[in-house]
Amino acid sequence: MDVYVYGMTVLSTIHQLRDRYPAADTYQEIQKTVVMPGGEGANAAVVLSNLGLSTVLDCCYLGQETAVPLRSYLQEKQVDCSLLVEIEDFAGWKDIVLCDGVSRTVFGWFNACFSSERQLWAAPDETAVQNARCVALDPFFGAESVETAALCRKHGTPYVTIDCPWDSPVAQSARALVVSREFLTQKYPGEDPERLLAQYRKCCNGLVIFTFGSEKILYGEPGMERPLSFQPYAVDVVDTLAAGDTFRAGVVYGLVQKMSATDTVHFAAATAAVSCTRFPSVYQPPSLSEILELMQER
């Protein structure tokens, strides 16, 4: 396979609002509703498969309410679901998302799933890690995420992860790390992004990318004299829900294709930009031709 994705997979009910997210005790009309796979891992897998990479998805257990629709949709998108396990007496990982074109608000049961008396996700598959050209790793699954990173180091498989603190072993060994504004604001409130990036670059072995929505991307990797920046592509935004997930998928694609750091960032930014032009953003995942066309226009 090209990519082993160890990450979050949920069944999302996504509502597109007619206008901006409402204030308390007011009303807003729902314009469109879709039920489809979501989560950082599943979204990345769908995008990567659509870009022509053979992709296998692993981690979250399936439940009685999620197994059939998730397998059906993911297989339709040519994502290998053979490692996904269905368990009894479990509804499944689910969420509800409200999108207004500028922001998205997620409602879920994630704390309940993570604090359940039984573990609701699988251990990483060592054979899959060994055979992959690259791993997309979500850091949310405690010891299993750390174990996945360790298996990547053991077998020399590069991996791309997201939203880790600079002192995390998952961050430090990653070939590429994408850190969102949302994570930086929550983890390091009030910190200067450039000083934070310097700390990350000091401690991490790979490419570190800070994203800030439509504002400039900051990035750097070992060997670079100084960090660089890139202004994201301007598009008519319809939905931002999976912009971060598709950006990470673009980084994985760049790594598999042996792009330079700068080319990887440009490609990832274009991948995210294309996804923002439709609702839901990965229901019709970005194609390679669309991404390259946007890059050429710039």
Descriptive overview:
It is a single chain. With 298 residues, this protein is an alpha/beta fold. The protein has a single domain, classed as UDP-N-acetylmuramoyl-L-alanine:D-glutamate ligase, CATH 3.40.1190. The chain is 36% helix and 22% strand. It contains 11 helices and 12 strands. It has an 8-stranded mixed sheet, sandwiched between helices. A 4-stranded mixed sheet has the order 3-2-5-6. Helix 1 crosses helix 9. The longest helix has 15 residues. The chain is globular. The two termini are 33 Å apart. The model has no long low-confidence stretch (mean pLDDT 95).
Summarize the structure.
The chain is α/β, with parallel strands linked by helices. The protein has helices at residues 40-50, 67-76, 110-114, 126-131, 142-155, 169-172, 181-187, 193-203, 243-256, 261-275, 288-297, and strands spanning 3-7, 10-17, 30-38, 55-59, 94-99, 104-108, 134-137, 159-162, 176-180, 207-212, 215-220, 228-230.
Q: How many structural domains can be distinguished in the coordinates?
A: 1
- Described by the principal axes of the CA atoms, the overall outline is globular
Write down the CATH class: Alpha Beta
What is the alpha-carbon Rg in Å?
A: 18 Å
Q: And the CATH topology?
A: UDP-N-acetylmuramoyl-L-alanine:D-glutamate ligase
The tally of beta strands, per DSSP, is 12
CATH superfamily: Ribokinase
**Residue-averaged pLDDT, rounded?**
95
- The amount of beta strand, in percent, is 15-25%
For the largest beta-sheet, the strand count, sense and barrel status come to: 8 strands, mixed
Number of helices: 11
Unreliable stretches covering 5 or more consecutive residues: none
